[in-house]
Description:
Blueprint: E1 7-11, E2 17-26, H1 31-39, E3 48-59, H2 61-76, E4 81-84, H3 88-96, E5 105-106, H4 109-117
Parallel strand pairs: 2-3, 3-4, 4-5
Antiparallel strand pairs: 1-2
Helix pairs in contact: 1-2
Amino acid sequence: MTDQILTVALDQNSAAFTVLRVAGELDHHSAPALSEALEAVPFGPEHGVVIDLTGLSYCDSTGISVLVIAFQNAQAADSPFGLAGLNRELMRVFQIAGLDKFLPFHATVDEAVEAQRS
């Protein structure tokens, strides 16, 4: 960890989907900021959500929990959902935890958006 502050930017590209751009460290100190940002996202059948993790440098179990809860909320609302841009080291953590078996990971935001449109 490098004590890198978490930033979350909401990018509502269209009425069809929202991209949340997450950068920095997602841990027990910063996870509430992402949870709060997710509360402002309109989940629904006609509105997809992509969480862009390209700038994420660290993620602990609390951060993972926030992402899993976001996925569950999307499922409950029948909302398209995707995670994009996770670096190789962090992807390995998700794989070890078995989360790659049900969380929808994509290499890029564009791929995640395209998957939602399909």
